[in-house]
């Protein structure tokens, strides 16, 4: 289990704006996220939930505004829409690879534990092409078990998950927060997250006006 | 370094497991070379004269064959996002992927090239120069190709665009490579051409990963 860093890291966004394909998706967005907190992004399709997560991850630059993450550079885990699962690799190989690229030293027992945590034990050595969509999603979620990440950015983490897996994810997020972790997630499915704050992205939509 | 080797071994494993890719490149190389005697006719002197150029052009086209998949699969399945976010510098990731591409295409082509040269009747004394020129030249092709593959990422008809973009950049490598063999077969020294090829490689090795990484970051946003 990755231990969170001693100094409590926090995320601070001020007056963020995001430009996608020549359209201002949202503007004037500010929020704070401290250790142990969770922020649930809601809003209709195209309101910029994924864009905001990609922006916080550092995959796309902000069009305006400032974003301040006080944690270490490698302490952000991003789970996008896609699972980044290679059909030809086995779940064990996938996790070993992602742990190494995330800067962690993968151990056989650590990977076994991560697979067990998402209830994929026993499927370790089956090529991922035989996994169902939900199982692939669970394998992607297992990446969170391996890295030293403190801030989790989850883009619709429940996509394709069954009820038991959703409950397991909720419990996992609660444990991560209890250990001082931060979670930002976009979802269309209501999730049971104690004391999570909401951020409705449609409130920051910009009226369609030519730039 | 660990992450670099992990990425390299993953790419090799993926290519070998999905199979076919390496075999297709090699088959393409052999068939392209075989087409020349069929088209030109079995005149031994003429074939020996053009052998070096034919092997080089065929190697160049075969290299191009697998290039458009270099980043495309990682881009489509979201792996590229994670590579960009990884503590491993993206330049190093590009280098690992270009190296994997070379090990899977360049190196097998080099191993096959004496056979092709023999088939075209290139004098045996020149084969070492041909192999050496390919050894210096094909890594350049993989590196320059990585830049093209990164630039055309996400483009429709990316494969055709890639060829248009990259083939002109392959020209210097082709000229020096073919000229080295040409010089050796006419009894001149191949050294200056080989040195120039080495220079191309020395320039491409640091510059191409930087350019390709910049293009990949651009493709993300």
UniProtKB/TrEMBL annotation, chain A:
Stretches of the chain forming a coiled coil according to its record: none
The ABC transporter domain, residue ranges: 11-209
Protein keywords: ATP-binding, Cytochrome c-type biogenesis, Membrane, Nucleotide-binding, Translocase, Transport
The keyword Nucleotide-binding appears for this protein: yes
Matches recorded under Pfam families: ABC_tran
Record field: transmembrane: none
Disulfide bond listed as a keyword: no
Superkingdom in the source lineage: Bacteria
Gene3D superfamilies: P-loop containing nucleotide triphosphate hydrolases
Name of the molecule in the record: Heme exporter protein A
From TrEMBL, chain B:
Coiled coil regions in record: none
Highest taxon listed in the record's lineage: Bacteria
Entries under InterPro entries matching the protein: Cyt_c_biogenesis_CcmB, Cyt_c_CcmB_bac
Keywords linked to the UniProt accession: Cell inner membrane, Cell membrane, Cytochrome c-type biogenesis, Membrane, Transmembrane, Transmembrane helix, Transport
Any Pfam family: CcmB
Bilayer topology annotation: Multi-pass membrane protein
Cellular localization per UniProt: Cell inner membrane
Bilayer-spanning residue ranges: 21-40, 46-67, 99-120, 126-153, 160-181, 193-216
Entry similarity comment: Belongs to the CcmB/CycW/HelB family.
NCBIfam families (alphabetical): ccmB
Protein's job: Required for the export of heme to the periplasm for the biogenesis of c-type cytochromes.
Protein name, as recorded: Heme exporter protein B
Organism, scientific name: Inquilinus ginsengisoli
């Amino acid at each position: 289990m990755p231990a969170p860093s001693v100094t409590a890291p926090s995320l601070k966004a001020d007056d963020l704006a995001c430009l996608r394909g020549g359209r201002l998706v949202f503007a004037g967005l500010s929020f704070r996220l401290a250790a142990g907190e969770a922020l649930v992004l809601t809003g209709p399709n195209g309101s910029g939930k994924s864009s905001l997560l990609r922006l916080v991850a550092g995959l796309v630059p902000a069009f305006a505004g400032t974003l301040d993450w006080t944690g270490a550079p490698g302490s952000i885990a991003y789970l996008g829409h896609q699972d980044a699962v290679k059909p030809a690799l086995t779940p064990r190989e996938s996790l070993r690879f992602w742990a190494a690229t995330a800067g962690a030293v993968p151990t056989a027992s650590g990977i076994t534990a991560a697979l067990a945590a998402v209830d994929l034990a026993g499927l370790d050595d089956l090529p991922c092409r035989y996994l169902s969509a939900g199982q692939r999603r669970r394998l992607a979620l297992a990446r969170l078990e391996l890295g030293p990440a403190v801030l989790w950015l989850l883009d619709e983490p429940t996509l394709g998950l069954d009820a038991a897996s959703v409950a397991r994810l909720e419990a996992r997020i609660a444990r991560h927060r209890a250990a001082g972790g931060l979670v930002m997630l976009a979802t269309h499915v209501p999730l049971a997250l104690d004391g999570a704050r909401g951020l409705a992205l449609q409130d920051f939509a910009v009226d369609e006006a030519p730039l | 370094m660990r992450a670099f080797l992990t990425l390299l071994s993953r790419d090799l494993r993926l290519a070998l497991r999905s199979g076919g890719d390496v075999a297709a490149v090699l088959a393409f190389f052999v068939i392209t070379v075989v087409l020349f005697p069929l088209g030109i006719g079995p005149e031994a002197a003429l074939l020996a004269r053009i052998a070096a150029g034919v092997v080089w052009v065929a190697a160049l086209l075969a290299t191009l064959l697998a290039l458009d998949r270099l980043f495309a699969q990682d881009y489509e399945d979201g792996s590229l996002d994670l590579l960009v976010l990884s503590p491993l510098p993206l330049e190093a990731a590009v280098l690992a992927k270009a190296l994997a591409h070379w090990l899977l295409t360049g190196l097998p082509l080099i191993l096959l090239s004496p056979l092709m040269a023999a088939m075209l009747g290139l004098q045996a004394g020149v084969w070492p120069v041909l192999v050496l020129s390919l050894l210096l030249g094909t890594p350049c092709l993989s590196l320059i190709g990585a830049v093209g593959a990164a630039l055309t990422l996400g483009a429709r008809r990316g494969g055709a665009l890639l060829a248009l973009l990259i083939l002109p950049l392959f020209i210097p490598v082709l000229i020096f490579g073919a000229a080295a063999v040409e010089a050796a077969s006419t009894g001149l020294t191949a050294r200056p051409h080989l040195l120039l090829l080495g220079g191309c490689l020395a320039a491409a090795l640091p510059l191409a990963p930087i350019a390709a990484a910049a293009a990949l970051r651009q493709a993300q946003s």
